[in-house]
Amino acid sequence: MPRDVNDLLHGTLDVLVLKTLSWGPMHGYAIATWIEQRTDGTLEIVDAALYKSLHRLEHSGAVAAEWGLSENNRRAKYYSLTTRGRQLMRAETATWRRYVVAVSAVLETA
Amino acid sequence: MSDKPERPGMPEGVRRAFRLPWRGKAQTDRDIDDEVAFHVEMRIAALRASGFTPEDARAEALRRFGDVEEFHDYCQTIDAPYARRARASRWAQGWMQDVRFAIRQLRRTPAFTTIAVLTLALGIGANTAIFSVVQHVLLAPIPYRGGDRIVQILESIPSGGHGFVIPRAKLVSVWQARAHSLEQIVGYDPGEATFSDGPTLEAIASASIAVDMLPFLGVHPVLGRNFVPGDTMADAAPVALLGYGMWQRRYGGSSDVLGRLVKLNGKSFVVIGVMPRGLALPFDPGERGVWMPLHLTTPYDRIQVLGRLRSGNSASDATRELSAIAATAPGLSGGGKYPGAASVFTRRDLLGDSYQQTLIMLFGAVGLVLLIACANVANLLLVRAGSREREFAVRAALGAGRGRLVRQVLTESMLLALAGCAVGLLLAWRGLRLIIALSPAELSNLAGVRLEPVVLAWSLGIAVFTGLIFGLVPALLATEHTIGESLKSSTRSASGSVRARRVRGTLIVGEIALSVVLLVGAGLLMRSFTALEHMDPGFDPHGLVGISVEMPEEHFASRLSRYAAITQMVDGVSKIPGVQSITVASDMPPNDGAAFGDLEIAGRTLASSAQVSTLGFAMGDENYFRVIGLPLREGRIFTPDIPPTAAADSAIATHEIMINQRFAKRFWPAGGAVGARIRLGDKGDWMTIVGVVGDAQLPGALRVISDLRMYVPFSSVTSQAEIIVRSAVPSGTLTPELNAAIMRASPFIQVHKSQTAESIIAEAVAQPRFAMTLIGAFALLALILAVVGLYGVIAYSVSQRTREIGVRIALGAQPRDVVTIVMRQGFALVALGIALGVAAAFGATRVIQSLLFDVGSTDLATFLIAGALTAIVTSLACYIPARRAARIDPLVALRAD
């Protein structure tokens, strides 16, 4: 069973999306496959959750969306990182790292 | 899944730039669906590539996507507001772009822009000025508590008369006690007072007001206190409130004024406060200098009355109720013979029909001027659009839709309209002062007219409206046949599109017709005014000055004392150099008073004369007719009353009277009035008619109680008199000396006001003069605009036909022939315009029928003159371009373009 976004800690999906987009503009499907490949399928994300995250980020101004033509000449919505999104990504990444360190510390001493 | 076919070779960004910025909910929905569809299809393709069957791939892809419906709803909720915002901002950007572009376009043609803006400014300015007057006079509420329900109450003249009188104080108190249709009834008594604080005397407007007047209006003194009931007690110290203007002028707005003693009519008053700035009683034209508490000395006094209608009651409800009360009030109904009656007037009633009609007529006139201005600007825009056809064609080819182009053109006309509005407001602001200066003071207080917010909003409204009117037709025409022909044809089209030319012609015909209507209206009013001005008042008003004096009862208790005072005044005044003759009377002609009672003629049945129960009435001494120049037509002058003596303090009446010609003609058409005896009411004395004099009348017969008038010898029964002198020097210069002479006769005599007969007559024609001046100005404006418009159209047409005319000249046409060709084109428009205008004027001038004096609304001469004037001026407008056409050099013309 793929994990639902609710199972992921808050903001995890967003930061993954932002990180993915930092490689360049891509459409939703590309983002999904990119994350799947990077995690070797460990993190199989519900597509709806991914798109929700994208729309959410679009409205917060972290990503910009534009309709364009896909590699197979189809109309597709391309997302790209904005300056604001780049800042958000750095901040979120740092928070995530601190979080991981903190959680690990607790788990390892237990 | 729907998939829009892509336009090949058109990159996405370019296409978007030309797409109308209009994305509704449907578009948002479609975007979400497209995105999901794309994703799912990509996923299916990937799964199939890894060996899934089509059905399994589809099922797996959908499973991995999750809840599509829920996702759709989620996106809808967060996308919709975003999309709306984005749409709004794109829309605003589009407009900004349009506005910037329009400004560039307008700046590129400064002459066109200036003319268009000025034309619109004249139209909008005239409308704004007149609207602010209408707003102030007819629409804005009276600025006091429950102001829209404030009414004036008068007593109706008993049956048969057609006038109203100020109510008796005694009746007012009965109304106050019993009326339910009015919340409150308050009395006041306007007048003039001689004010002194130091050695100089000054006559100022004053009023005595009921103690509850200020609460009635809902105002408080800005300084000090209001009157209290104790102030009207017989033993209370007399107190007064100063008007704000008076306070500023005399005391520089100092608060030391409280408690100060001032003299009013020779009596000391303590100043207890200052009224709010600009406080004027409803229906009273101006601020008064000093206010006193209303003191009723006798119950027979008459006082002005204001009331406030209870919500839900109309003025006619109140009229009915107050009349019913008056008819049954004990001791007030005249023994049932003359049952009292009331009339309750709203502001509109008081303004009078003619004043309202004047305003409405002016409002209509400026509306026509605005239409003409719009037609002119529309014409200019049409011409301009003709020369911009190629620009539009290029823009259309680049992807701008017709809607987009129309919007662009409308933006330009809207900008023109707004600029016109701004300049128009300036004009209105200046023009309003002129209108206020011209307006007859007695009619309404126009001094308070301002460009108020509601007026500004209205002007903006008409600016936007006119922008649409004059912009839409040219915009639609200009963008009608864009891409095809215009780009293909290398030369400019013959003279714009046929349809544009037809529209231009129609507009010009309309303009000419409208200005003919205005000219006819102005002409009629002008003729009417001339007739009024040249109307014979029946007497000789030149150099006639009247001074109204009062001999208060407390100082002049006996008739003998009043008689003596008058004799002394006459003596003193007649010694002033420049005074040629002097007479004592009750009123300054042509004004008169009224006498009530059923007219009865001796030897005739009452029924034959009793339809008359109100007569114009004036008292005068034996010199009266000679001094005012009222000619004796028949009989002789009456013998004066025998003056009172110390032994018997009453004048002995001779019961001799005189009547005017109309009176004599009405009842003695075959002559024989002299010697007849009449009386008014069955208790009146019989009086003998000894002479018939001419008809003294006010031009336009305004405010006249009755056409029939009787003159009786002046007797010293009343405390008021009018000292009338005829002087050789200009009437105004004599006033100070007259005042001084009267004061010398007795310090207790109060001088109320001095006026000249000429000023009374001038005042009577002030309103017609006002109407005539303004409508004349507007008609002139209309004519100028129409002529400029016609000139523009003909000149443009000549410039378009240069080649044709050049060919004609090359083929041997003489200058005269060319002039004829061009003039014929103009004349066709002019003739049609005048014909339509005359026809319209026949209908339109019926509206002003009631404003006309001695001129029919279909006066032939006026119509002819208006038509001829239009024809002459418009011919000139055609002739100038025609002459220019005749001078075209065929060589130059054929080489060009």
Please write out the topology.
The complex is a heterodimer of chains A (110) and B (897).
Chain A: H1 12-21, E1 26-27, H2 28-38, H3 47-60, E2 63-69, E3 75-81, H4 83-109
Antiparallel strand pairs in A: 1-3, 2-3
Helix pairs in contact in A: 1-4
Chain B: H1 12-18, H2 25-49, H3 54-65, H4 68-108, H5 110-139, E1 150-156, E2 164-165, H6 169-178, E3 182-196, E4 201-209, H7 213-217, E5 223-224, E6 239-242, H8 244-251, E7 261-264, E8 267-274, E9 290-293, E10 304-309, H9 315-328, E11 342-345, H10 347-351, H11 353-387, H12 389-397, H13 402-438, H14 453-478, H15 483-488, H16 498-533, E12 544-550, H17 559-574, E13 579-585, E14 593-596, E15 599-601, E16 614-620, H18 624-628, E17 632-635, E18 656-660, H19 661-667, E19 677-680, E20 687-693, E21 709-713, E22 720-727, H20 731-745, E23 750-756, H21 757-764, H22 766-800, H23 802-810, H24 815-844, H25 860-886, H26 890-895
Parallel strand pairs in B: 4-9, 6-8, 16-21, 18-20
Antiparallel strand pairs in B: 1-2, 1-10, 1-11, 3-4, 3-7, 3-10, 5-8, 6-9, 7-8, 12-22, 12-23, 13-22, 14-16, 15-19, 17-20, 18-21, 19-20
Helix pairs in contact in B: 2-3, 2-4, 4-13, 5-11, 5-13, 5-14, 11-14, 11-16, 11-22, 13-14, 16-22, 16-24, 16-25, 17-20, 22-25, 24-25
